[in-house]
Amino acid sequence: MKIALASLLPATDLHLATFLHRRLALSLAHARGQLALGTSGTFYTCELYGNDHVQRDSEIRDIVRVFAERNAPLQVWEMDAGQSPEPLEEAHLLNALDAAAGGYR
């Protein structure tokens, strides 16, 4: 399962940009630019359930937490090979991560 994250609305919150810069090692300018684009500014993509699942789980949970703290809604997409990205509810993403908890180290 591959997912992508973007801000649902265009955002200029410097706290969010700084968080993405520090947590994901994005340049500050790139993070600010992607946030300003709203849903077309994907700032995070990853494949779940791979060898790096524990790291990806942690990153996703941190992103969801910080965006919630800043009252900044996220756009989540699920991307299956050969298909168009489909919107995915944030709660469904977290449920999928919860279901996989303990299965990876």
Q: How would you describe what is shown here?
A:
The longest helix has 17 residues, at 53-69. Helix 1 (14-24) packs across helix 2 and helix 1 packs antiparallel against helix 3 (53-69). A four-stranded antiparallel β-sheet has the order 2-1-3-4. It is built from four helices and four strands. The chain is α+β, with helices and mostly antiparallel strands. The chain is globular, with a radius of gyration of 13 Å. A hairpin with a 6-residue loop joins strand 3 (74-79) and strand 4 (86-87).
Order of helices and strands: EHHEHEEH
In spatial order, strands of the major sheet run: 2-1-3-4
First CA to last CA: what distance?
18 Å
Structural category: alpha+beta
DSSP helix fraction = 40-55%
* Average residue-wise pLDDT: 94
Shape: globular
Number of helices: 4
* Low-confidence sequence ranges: none
Secondary structure tally: strands: 4
β content, as a range?
15-25%
Fold topology:
Elements: E1 2-7, H1 14-24, H2 28-36, E2 44-47, H3 53-69, E3 74-79, E4 86-87, H4 90-100
Antiparallel strand pairs: 1-2, 1-3, 3-4
Helix pairs in contact: 1-2, 1-3
Short précis:
The protein is of the alpha+beta class and 105 residues long. It has helices spanning 14-24, 28-36, 53-69, 90-100; strands at residues 2-7, 44-47, 74-79, 86-87.
